[in-house]
Design goal:
Blueprint lengths: L3 E7 L3 H15 L3 E3 L8 E6 L4 H20 L6 E6 H6 L2 H5 L5 E3 L7 H9 L8 E2 L21 E5 L1 E2 L10 H5 L3 E2 L2 H13 L4 E5 L16 H8 L7 E4 L9 H9 L3 E6 L7 H6 L6 H14 L4 E8 L6 H14 L3 E6 L17 H25 L4 E9 L7 E5 L10 E4 L8 E9 L4 E5 L1
Parallel strand pairs: 1-2, 1-3, 3-4, 4-5, 5-6, 7-10, 10-11, 11-12, 12-13, 13-14, 17-19
Antiparallel strand pairs: 8-9, 15-16, 15-18, 16-17, 18-19
Amino acid sequence: MPVKKVHIVSLGCPKNQVDSEVMAAALAAGNYLLTDRPEEAAVILINTCAFILPAREESIEEILRMAAWKREGDGPCKHLVVTGCLPQRYGSTLEEALPEVDLFLGISEIPHIGRHLDGLFQAVRRRRHSIIGKPTFLMNAGHRRLISAPAHSAYLKIADGCSNRCSYCAIPAIRGKARSRTIDDIVGEAELLAAQGVRELILTAQDTTAYGLDRKGQPTLSRLLSALAKVAGISWIRVLYTYPAHLTEELLRTMAEEEKICRYLDIPIQHSDDAILRAMHRRGDSALIRNVINKARKIVPHIALRTSLITGFPGETPRRFDNLLSFIQEMRFDHLGVFTYSPEEGTEAAALPSRISEKEKQRRLDLLMEAQAGISGDINSALIGTRQEVLLEGKSDLSGYAHVGRCRRQAPEIDGVTYLRGGAAETGQLVACRITAADDYDLFAEII
């Protein structure tokens, strides 16, 4: 079969990005050539997100936008394929709603993407346009990835699925129960990534602190981190998506002892009011969260903490929202993100009565982000004069600063960046710098 060009659109979280990279590598190893220009592609593949309403809306908008390349007829596009969480969640019901799509594939079809595209081009007669099985796929080191730019930083998916059953979340229904890879397999992939020039590993899963609980012998995230720290060529290891009730002292001590592990922790607490936490089916209360945060700062000095919140959840009275706002002002997270509550069909929380308008949800979000801006600004200002190690990510578009990168306290895309001037440096290089200025979210530095 002659070589065909494929354009991949990856939506949603880093875990989805890893799936897209697995599909890209599988296609590149076959009769397909990847292109970043949809107008050149014979196939457009969209890996979708369906976590909350805005994510679903973005997925559908992108499907309709890409369908235009196929519909116009004067370009090479012959087929539009949709994969990932949207078809996994809604199955064959999408066929009638989105007739522009030639094929819908569930999560377990990720490793078989080449075979499915071959079938489209070979005009294999299909009885159905949706292939949606149980979400059981779990990648391993044998599933090669075509790493998205920048190539010096890569997400490392250590598990998939979730068994926490929070009342507002559809992820267990979409992705299935938590299932972890083995330590040896993850280390094997880390070695492959290091050989490709990756300097930073970013550990990701629906709940990284649940890693190993489903496996015989229950290997821990702490043991995994210790093993990854021994991989030659890796300079930074960053941990995302930790669940406060699962954060152990052993994990924190490992972070403090291993130089390669960034003193950075993403702890999505979702809320701090005890009544709301109970309604969300979150394990642990505000006292536990406060204890975990204080323990992290004691055991890992100068640790940067990020969290995510949901506001407008059913039952979030003005008093309960004030509790959340006061908690944020007390805990002073380095980085923070907020979502407005989205009722998701099939979840327990969707049946709860809610009288909070979208306008009020947005008002509360704005109040939280306004408070956080002041906190982040104060924390960043305190860094002026300190020495930081920065991973260069490219040329800066800010006048007076030649480069842009991230220090250990900044994760890609979700946190601020560090602008650099002075000295000669290349993308992917780690450089020492001194912080000279700061704003609410970004840092400014001189290369030493």
